[in-house]
Amino acid sequence: MNNRISEYSGISTSKVWREGRYFGTVDDWLEKKKKEDGAEGLWRIHDNLYDLTTWMKKHPGGSHWLEYTKGTDITEAFEINHIRGNAEKVLKKFYVRRAKGNRSYSTTFNEMGFFKTLKRKLVDRKLLDDGCTSPQQKTKILADTLAVSVFLTSLMGTFFNFWWFLLSGSLLGLLGVCSHNFFHMKDNWRMFYFHLSLMSLREWRISHVLSHHIFPNSYLDLEVSMVEPFLNFLPRTDKRIRYIAWTITPFLMMCLAHVQFIRRLYLVLIKRSTKLEWKEELVGFSFPLFIYIFNGAVSPWEIFLTWNVVVATASFVFTFIGFTAAHHHPEIYHDGDYLGNNRDFGVLQLAAVRDRSDVDGNYVLTTLMFGNHAMHHLFPTIDHSKLYDLNPVLEETCREFNINFKPMTVKNMLLGMFQQLVRNYTNFKLHIMNS
């Protein structure tokens, strides 16, 4: 990569994140973090080490989060997922010692910085009720309605015509976006809706929650690297298929769910390098089973074909919304762009995301199109139905810190994604920074 671009890596300058990126797994990513983070087999938060082994089973969010992250630096994850200050009190009981070296990441959490100030305002003004980080009733109703609709429309397809399967797949893609609201939270059964699309809850809790949400648009962001080398969102000078990416993008979107499912089977059955969550995987097979039970006249081969049509359609809808929602545009930070000296975690998040004025404020669109994305990135455990009400505090804090955070539109982001795929130059003036 061109030196002029590589010198502006914003979050981590370690070469390990540039090596072996293509076709890497979430487990590979975790192993790299363990080598880089200086956690010494424990859990690192800021410059302290904690032994949370005895707390794992008691962790209110579920034991998986601590199992995944043992031996890594969880500073960012701790800060954004524990808002009200209660976790800090519990954490003191598990203190072991100071870490030996400095953190591997440049992000900061100064008490008077942007992120901590915003977080403090939300708590001090009592804007977060006790249930804000639990699934809200209308979000549960929306998810359940989508799930029922997915099954019913697919069944209608077996009696009528092919278009019903495309509708079922589109609804399944929207259900995938909606279920993303649930897998950020403590363990709950609705998070398993995600498996209907054949994508893995475990993988996405790592690639999305622990990687993308903390290191968006960087070399550490698995949602960027998982589509490389075919789609290159980072501003690299060695992009070999820049404009070809425009033509293959729809095909890749359609194949993503199948590719992830086949890769999981390969890693388990052939490589034997990872563990498959069999109970979770069975959720995905409830779809063909439902068709078989309620329309026995359909042959197994027809069920298999229609199931794959639905999954491919869902994959396209889910990925299309994800790639065009909030992150990829030439005016949005990608690793290699110049950030300036302010490395506050909240500022870095805002640099790598944009809201959309024609989505935010509408609850259904927000929940089904990754809306209010800035607040969601800063505080991901808050239910989507609550995010819009917190925007005034975000806007106030941006003014206080002289941050020019302006929304775009759906059209801006759609066109911007294709522009970003071919961008191979450094952005030296991010519009978010007034200075």
UniProtKB/TrEMBL annotation:
Highest rank taxon of the organism: Eukaryota
Transmembrane feature ranges: 243-262, 282-298, 304-326
Gene Ontology BP, a term: lipid metabolic process
Domain Cytochrome b5 heme-binding: 30-100
UniProt keyword annotations, A-Z: Membrane, Transmembrane, Transmembrane helix
SUPFAM superfamilies documented for this protein: Cytochrome b5-like heme/steroid binding domain
Pfam families: Cyt-b5 (PF00173), FA_desaturase (PF00487)
PANTHER family: CYTOCHROME B5-RELATED PROTEIN-RELATED
Protein name stated in the entry: Cytochrome b5 heme-binding domain-containing protein
Native organism: Polyplax serrata
Lineage: Eukaryota, Metazoa, Ecdysozoa, Arthropoda, Hexapoda
